[in-house]
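During the reporting period the student researcher (J.K.) took over the structure-prediction task from the postdoctoral fellow and processed the backlog of single-chain submissions. One of the processed entries is reproduced below for the supervisory committee.
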Amino acid sequence: SVANELMTVEEIAKYLKVTKSFVYEKIHKKEIPFHKVGKFPRFRKSHIDIWIKNPYHPDLSIYDLRKN
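J.K. obtained the following structure tokens:
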């Protein structure tokens, strides 16, 4: 399904209307939910949609995101 689709850094930057460097910074700081596919970060669209509303939503607990 589209909700479970894995997205690239480029796709997620476009989706969030932010720069790729912003996305990479969030990855580096572990402040955005992502998976590594080999060495490549990938994002589950459904989890990004939750994260936009609430970065610390229980459904995102698997990612162990850093709280500011």
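The committee noted the following: DSSP finds three helices and three strands in the chain.
J.K. will present the remaining backlog at the next meeting.
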